[in-house]
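Workshop exercise sheet. Pairs work together: one partner reads the sequence aloud, the other fills in the structure field after running the prediction. Swap roles for the next sheet.
Pair: D.N. / O.F.
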Amino acid sequence: MLRLTRRSVLNTAKSFHPNARRGMASSFFPDEPKGPSMKTSVPGPASKAIMDRMNKFQDTRSVFFIADFAKSKGNYIVDADGNTLLDVFAQIASIPLGYNSPAFLELTNKPAFQTALANRAALGVNPTEDWVDSVQNAFMKVAPKGMSNVFTVMCGSCANENAFKTAFMYQAAKRRGDKDFSLDELHSCMKNQAPGSPDMSILSFGQGFHGRLFGSLAATSSKALHKIDIPAFDWPRAPFPALKYPLDQNKEHNRAIEKASIEAVDLLLQNKTRPVAAVIVEPIQSEGGDNHASPEYFRNLQAVCKAHDVLFIVDEVQTGVGASGTFWAHEAWNLPTAPDMVTFSKKFQAAGFYLHPRLRPSQPYRLYNTWMGDPVRAMQAVAIVNEIENKDLLSNVKQVGDYLQKKLKSMADRKLLSDVRGQGALIAFDLETPAKRDKFLIDMRQRGVNIGGCGERTVRLRPMLTFQPHHADILLDTMEATLTS
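Structure field:
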């Protein structure tokens, strides 16, 4: 691979990466940049000036740089200083089709889209005439097998919060049987007391991330900074399997660690002092370090939930909508029956959760808020589904994912990185220490690649569905130069 230097990258404002033209003839964005082009350091003076202004009103300490979305295109993001970076972070894994996708831009010319922008509906009381079409043509068209209902909300945390509420209401209704709410329940819930406010819980996993709202944060344990100072529910947590890599050399250890995790879940579900209404799990623990488990593990987890009459929630907020090479990452598990609920957001540009009809509350307004989703975002979701289908983007993700993992494992063989793992293009690897990982992320941006981390020392790749092998070559060459400089 070509060795790049920091100086050569920063001094090539009008030149592009030498591998940028590989495969460009078949690009989903023929007019996207041919490669990274760097004019300044990142963040540059223009970004810093805007950040200084913004910091008077909003905290900017988490900001990488200021984006110029008008100039960004395809797999490339442009910043306020005119730097063009290959983007494999993609707005925290939330961009599906690339920047300024023609499929999205065409929507802005449609009267229905303009009407939805000008008149935002409170969907619970006044859904628009075409809302049902968006639900049918986006969310239900790609509903996980065996799931026939969807509840739309505003964000991934909202999706998980409402899935938790659904689980609690379902379990409480099952205990109550055919009876109506008692006066004692109605009065006690207004005081946040039992029996109206029952002592139920959600079981989650160590290193899991499910959001930053109160219920979702109680189920989150990926980073202490998310949770410190916030009152939390005392909910149970099971260990997630800590697999060793390469997988083919650690089969016995990984089987044992997965078995131990299932046994821990089983033991926690036997505790009847605080009944568990549902178990929530990510197909890949994304914020917690891109932690994987085998399909057999998840099948066993569902079986344990069924044995204890506990609902099984799959959190696909970061893993869903094609990033794994299948539309839903949990499809790879070959579950005997569908999960009870599947939450989504990010790459769908909309949020919500799928559920079975039996989980619908028996009274209205129990799952409810003002917006209950957004017709504008639902129309975008239709475009996403159509583009994935028409351009066979799932095959593209599988192809580029296989290619990237093979190349990264070769780099691991040379001890440049370690523990390569992935499903489709949801790929990660580790560096030796947190400090080396953090420096790597910064150095990669200086060389023209926007990239992110997770866990303590993990680098995660979250490219768009339009990311192709010629983009991967640029990424790999830049990584090689950064890791060997």
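Discussion prompt: The two ends are 13 Å apart (CA to CA). What would you look at next?
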